[in-house]
Amino acid sequence: MNALVVGASGYAGRHALRAFEGARGVDPEDDLEGAAEGVEIVAFCGPTWKPDHKPLRGAGPHPLLARSLGAAQAAGVRRFVHLSTATVFGPDHAGRIPEDARPRPAHAYERLKLREEEWLRRHCGALELVVVRAAFGFGAYDPILERLLRQLRAGRLRLVNRGRARRGFLAGPDLGRALLAAALRGRPGATYLAGGFDGSWRELLTMAAAVMGVPEKIASIPYDLAYVAAGARWLRTRAGEECWPNPYALDLLAKDHTYDDARSRRDLSWSPQIGSFDEGVVELVKWFRSQPHPLPLDAGATSPRGGEVDAVTSPQGK
């Protein structure tokens, strides 16, 4: 396919490249402007805001997103497919979230991701913009999953209600296929929801523990206590610095978040083919084992700034 995938070395980008057969891939440090020449479709899967950091203040778009859109426009690209997240709906919904629900972002990361969509709509010009809001992808390169696996391996993982909240999960190959369907069949200006299948963090981490060969030890912590600790940590953290666990991460792990994406499946002629964690967990653990993991965080010691590392997922937290 005559397409360019931005963020090709990340989790979403790798799967998009496999789905977009023949597409080129670039990363933030590459020549985006040159790579966009002669391309018909740009799929933006690039890394923008970090969910485990307090974002820097500023009203403008992320530089990588702005640069990618500018390169696409300068090269005369026809369609720009933007990978967003289903968390823009916010953490507080009763029952399944329909795709036409009004976004109610409560946390900084959710607001920034929604702001990206809004900025693109204002500045896309003649480009055909198609947005895909994806459920949580259980795979490599995700900082939240990496932290959970570190705590799991150390036997120090604590989650609200032991991680039994239900939410939508989307396997990497299905994410790639959803982006491809949006590129080929999405309506210009439309937003689609790729909801995946329902599962729980407990199910995912139980399977990961089996693959890692470690005991499944997941204790529980009250939501109110964890949220107060996360909020206090957020207030103490300076903009641009790591903040874990933060209120966004707590709600991601503690609250139900399932979706009704029937219209998107119908309109895109797409549906997930993977309905369990079996495909993806082995890849996730393999990637996790390849990462450097400093002992202090695994051992529940103090952070470089001297505070407790984890009040939600570590028994050391207070």
Could you please describe the fold and organization of this structure?
The chain is of the alpha/beta class and 318 residues long. It has one domain (3-298): 3-Layer(aba) Sandwich (Rossmann fold). It is built from twelve helices and 13 strands. Strand 1 (3-6), helix 1 and strand 2 (24-26) form a beta-alpha-beta unit. Helix 1 packs across helix 6 (172-185). The radius of gyration is 19 Å and the shape is globular. The chain starts with a strand and ends in a 20-residue tail after the last helix.
Short description:
With 318 residues, this protein is α/β, with parallel strands linked by helices. The protein is built from twelve helices and 13 strands.
Tell me the strand percentage band.
15-25%
Q: Considering the protein shown, what is the CATH homologous superfamily?
A: NAD(P)-binding Rossmann-like Domain
CATH architecture: 3-Layer(aba) Sandwich
Helix proportion: 25-40%
Reading off the top of the CATH hierarchy, the class is best stated as Alpha Beta
Q: Which structural class fits the helix and strand makeup?
A: alpha/beta
Low-pLDDT segments, ≥5 res:
295-311, 313-318
Strand sequence of the main sheet, in spatial order? 2-1-3-4-6-10
Overall geometry comes to: globular
Extended strand count: 13
CATH topology: Rossmann fold
Report the average pLDDT across residues: 90
What's the number of helices?
Answer: 12
SSE string, helices as H and strands as E: EHEHEHEEHEEHEEHEEHEHHEHHH
Radius of gyration: 19 Å
Span between N and C termini? 52 Å
Total domains: 1
Largest sheet descriptor: 6 strands, parallel
